[in-house]
Specification:
The complex is a heterodimer of chains A (293) and B (232). With 293 residues, chain A is mostly helical. Chain A has 14 helices and three strands. In chain A, helix 5 runs antiparallel to helix 9. Chain B has a single domain, classed as Lipoprotein localisation LolA/LolB/LppX (outer membrane lipoprotein receptor (LolB), chain A). In chain B, strands 4-3-1-12-11-10-9-8-7-6 form a ten-stranded antiparallel beta sheet. Classes of the chains: A mainly alpha (293), B alpha+beta (232). At the A-B interface, helix 3, strand 1, strand 2, strand 3 and helix 14 of A face strand 1, strand 2, strand 5 and helix 3 of B. Strand 1 of chain A pairs antiparallel with strand 5 of chain B.
């Protein structure tokens, strides 16, 4: 299995498109950082809305490394699935289109092992991608903008997390994001198993994510009640839960707390169920598949 | 007839004497406050606003005559209400351009106080009316209510300790009007954590509530000079 994983990793990381995702992310984050360096205060004023009329706020402190990283994650984690699909959608169908899948299936390893090795190799890629995001968006942002308290805007209010209570939340948030991206990888893998070319699974995965995200965000009661609870996109924003801090009745934040941990655990569990179901389906289909290419 | 005239004269005299008394009391309070040219104070600030969740902050207060005040969070970020400049009584009394009205007696907690209304002489001033609740024994202000033209009503309660001789409080409670806070969901992309959502009636109840800021002061450094740059 280890050898198989190494081979799959070699295949993923020798393709130029794999590094395209890293380059896109670096360029995107750099543009955000540059923009916030120039117009960060204006952006913060917009985010805090009418609060500016009631309160005196030191905007120079608000635009700090933690806030920049939070902003980057808000924008980026919606789009990272596309970059995940770019690689995961190709792992099986890419070999089918190149004609190497038959050779692979002829090796003395089970088809289950092949699929699991491909999925694990995709997991390594996803992990590397998120690590890259963490390094650029968090480490570099802290180096450029400095550390300070993090202000998180919600629909009905604002919360302030002290600087020394933020970092661990990022570790868990990135951990959660990894699980969420692995669901996307599992969808792509399943579609890749069913396809003979790479474009189909990649486009289909992106399409599924767009449709599901739109339904998740639409405030239409019938969707909210009957469809939304079953969509994986509903649970993908769970990483944000680590930045919703608990508080007393007076609104005083409780350091080291999470406002609603059960909600995060539920989201994580739902995503794990999706992963198991999708990867099992991929294994099942691949085992039954007539490999003709 | 002579008796009636005498009674009227006595009544008028008592009114005049009362007005004189209240002016003297306000002047004494003002004299006490005027002992302080500047101060630096360390304290802890607790903010209670319905749409804000913030930790208790360690703050420094800087004041310089006539009316410059800054509340600064040395380490982190703090949301300081716009009207907080009024927590310094010097800002209320220093101008001297107001009429003083005696509004009788009242109680703040268990203490008997004189109620004084200050009416600004400037018709265009932002402050429309200030009501002071003065402790006549210690000659300090225990409570104020300030009605402004644009920013609603502020309330201030103060308790004194070591620095009562300067009219500087140990604890300040500042109440102010808050406006509704709302962000479009498309901007925040909230994570729905499954916690119970507030009903429309509950949301309506939260609108335009009073916010409260409490400052607990550990100690003052008085009249040692403060650089103007602190207030920038």
């Amino acid at each position: 299995m280890w050898n198989l994983l190494q081979i799959e990793l070699f295949k993923i990381f020798k393709k130029p498109r794999t590094y395209l995702a890293f380059a896109i992310i670096a360029a995107f984050i750099f543009l955000i950082q540059l923009g916030l360096l120039v117009n960060g205060k204006d952006w913060m004023k917009f985010m805090l809305g009418s609060l500016d009329e009631t309160m005196n706020i030191d905007y120079s402190k608000l635009v700090n490394g933690y806030a920049v990283c939070f902003f980057v994650l808000n924008l980026l984690l919606v789009h990272v699935p596309i970059l995940v699909a770019l690689v995961a959608g190709d792992v099986v169908s890419g070999e089918a289109s190149m004609g190497t899948l038959r050779l692979l299936a002829a090796k003395p390893v089970s088809r289950t092992q092949i699929i699991l090795a491909k999925y694990l190799a995709t997991a390594v890629y996803v992990f590397a991608l998120l690590l890259w995001i963490a390094v650029i968006s968090l480490v570099i942002s802290i180096a450029v903008f400095g550390e300070n308290d993090l202000v998180v805007a919600k629909t009905n209010g604002l919360q302030l997390i002290e600087a020394n209570d933020v970092l661990w939340r990022y570790f868990f948030a990135f951990g959660f994001a990894f699980i969420a991206m692995m669901v996307v990888a599992a969808i792509s893998l399943l579609l890749s198993v069913m396809s003979e070319n790479s474009i189909g699974p990649i486009v289909a995965t992106v399409g599924i994510i767009i449709v599901c995200t739109l339904i998740s965000e639409m405030e239409i009661p019938i969707y909210q009640k009957y469809i939304k609870p079953y969509l994986f996109t509903t649970y993908m924003l769970g990483w944000k839960g680590f930045f919703y801090i608990g508080s007393t009745e007076d609104g005083e934040t409780i350091k080291g707390s999470i406002q609603y941990l059960p909600g995060i655990i539920k989201s994580m569990a739902a995503l794990m169920v999706y992963i198991v179901a999708l990867v099992s389906a991929a294994v099942f289909i691949f085992r039954k598949k007539d490999i003709l290419s | 007839m002579q008796r009636i005239i005498l009674l009227l004269l006595l009544f008028q005299f008592s009114l005049f004497a009362q007005a004189q008394d209240i002016n003297v009391l306000v002047q004494k309070v003002k004299d006490k406050i005027n002992l302080v040219n500047d101060y630096e104070a360390n304290g802890r600030m607790k903010t209670n606003v319905v749409f804000l969740k913030v930790p208790v902050a360690t703050v420094k207060l800087f004041f310089k005559k006539p009316n410059r005040l800054r509340i600064k969070n040395e380490k982190g970020i703090s949301f300081v209400p716009k009207g907080a400049v009024n927590i310094n009584m010097s800002n209320v009394l220093s101008s001297g351009k107001y009429s003083v009205l005696d509004a009788g007696n009242d109680k703040v907690g268990s203490r008997a106080v004189k109620v004084v209304k200050l009416l600004p002489e400037d018709d265009n001033a932002d402050v429309v009316l200030s009501t002071l609740y003065i402790d006549p024994v210690n000659q300090v202000i225990l409570k104020t209510k300030t009605t402004t033209r644009d920013n609603g009503t502020y309330e201030l309660e103060m308790s004194y300790g070591k620095y009562i001789a300067y009219g500087l409080p140990d604890k300040i409670t500042f109440s102010f009007n808050t406006k509704d806070y709302k962000m479009p969901k498309g901007v925040t992309f909230d994570f729905e954590d499954g916690s119970q959502k507030k009903t429309a009636a509950e949301k309506e109840k939260l609108k335009n509530q009073k916010g409260k800021m409490e400052i607990f002061i550990n100690g003052y450094i008085i009249n040692k000079g403060i650089a103007d740059g602190v207030f920038n």
